[in-house]
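To: structure subgroup
Subject: Chain for Friday's discussion

All,

I'm putting the inputs and outputs inline so they're searchable in the archive.
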Amino acid sequence: MGDLSYAPLVPNGVGGNYGTKAVPTYVMAEAETAPLPKITIEEPPPSPPPARRSLIARLGDLPMRVIYRIAVGGVATLAVVAAAVVFLVVDRGKPAPTAASALPASSPPAASSDPSDPSAPSASADFSASADPSASVDPSALASSAAPSAAASGTTAPGTSATSGASGPSAVSAQAGATPVPTPVPGRSALAAAEADPRVPAPPSVRKLADFPGRGAPTKGRVKDKRSGITFTRFTKAWKLVKSAPFGTRRVLPVVKGAGHRGMLATCPVPIAIQDELKDTAYLAARWTLNYHPDGSTITWTASQAIKAGKQKGWLLGYQVHYKVDGKKRVSTAAVALIDVPSAKPAMVFITIPDAQKKRRPDINTLISSLRVL
């Protein structure tokens, strides 16, 4: 096998050294090593709590739609509170209601003419007694008024309207007015108050109505005022049907420029205090019609006579109404007729024709002679 030579044995280092030989790795692994340092991780200190923000600052975090809704709600609440405060203040400042202020403001609807009239509206003239504009008013209070016409001053009472087609001075004519509610005079009767009115002279003596010359307007059929309980001839062409309130029926003549007034024919239950004598009631009624003439009008009597409507008794007063328009003297020819009817109040027929339309004066005679009771 060849010559094997063995090196001399050398101590393995126990109690000696290894000499120059390499040290085995298992011997190096068993050598002492320095201990590893202990690593510790410090925990961060707790963060301080967030500062408390104000309510205004936190509103900025809300969506805009929420902010808009809050703003609108606040404004609405303030408006309601303000309205309530104003209502309470105004309500406390109101005076106690009086009999005049408690009157209803509504007026009865317009009455219709005879059904055979193709140009007339088909409104009914049959009204209940409660629709009477004077039913809830003290008649003596109406008769004791000495105030100028509300219509002539350009005012319109509740429930009335201006006559259609009026313009210029005629727009403030008495056609657009309504009966004012005067303050009654304590201790004075309605008749005595009328006699003290400087616009109206003392009751006239008996005098027959003049027969006005000329040809009257054409007529066709009859008008039935069921509210007043009378009927009369229906004029055609010149006389136009208009809104009746506060009358039972009403017709007017065309507007004449510069006349300051337009002709009118109206009927209704007598709107003033009923006296013992029918002629005294007619006297108060004629004074009442000044409310449908220009402001400052005065009366002079032209007729006073008993009449009949069929078998029913009546009384007629004829008069002239004097007034001024733009400083110029004008006059209207007028008449009031009262007819005793079975209802509670006599029926009143009122017609007035200004001097600018004096050719229509014969219509007064035609109207009075045609009066009948339904």
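Points worth raising on Friday:
The domain at 129-373 is CATH 3.40.1000.10 (Protein Transport Mog1p; Chain A).
Residues 267 and 305 are 19 Å apart (CA to CA).

D.
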